[in-house]
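dumping this here so i dont lose it
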């Protein structure tokens, strides 16, 4: 694992759950990565994640990529896709997994 004060975190799935989790984590961690595609990828790269609720508004810059192999091993990988998409994303995992990675 890398520095526990700033672990490498990757979120696969930039929808509601991934967005909520990613925006929260990125507030205190500069190494939050997200794998996305299409317009979602472009928006994340340009604007970061925006999370709004009645109590708060967070804008979080993240490293958004479409190719997991550019990130290298992560300390934590969060799978925030719907269950029927797990087979589709399984090919993204090998480059993100190191000897101490938690998924």
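and the seq i came up w/
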């Amino acid at each position: 694992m890398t520095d526990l004060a700033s672990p490498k975190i990757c979120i696969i799935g930039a929808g509601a759950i991934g967005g909520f989790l990613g925006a929260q984590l990125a507030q205190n961690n500069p190494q939050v990565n997200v794998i996305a595609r299409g317009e979602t990828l472009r928006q994340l790269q340009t604007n970061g994640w925006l999370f709004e609720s009645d109590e708060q508004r967070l804008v979080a810059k993240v490293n958004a990529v479409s190719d997991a192999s550019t990130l290298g091993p992560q300390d934590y990988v969060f799978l925030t896709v719907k269950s029927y998409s797990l087979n589709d994303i399984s090919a993204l995992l090998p480059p993100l997994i190191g000897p101490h990675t938690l998924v």
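Residues 16-26 form the longest helix (11 residues).
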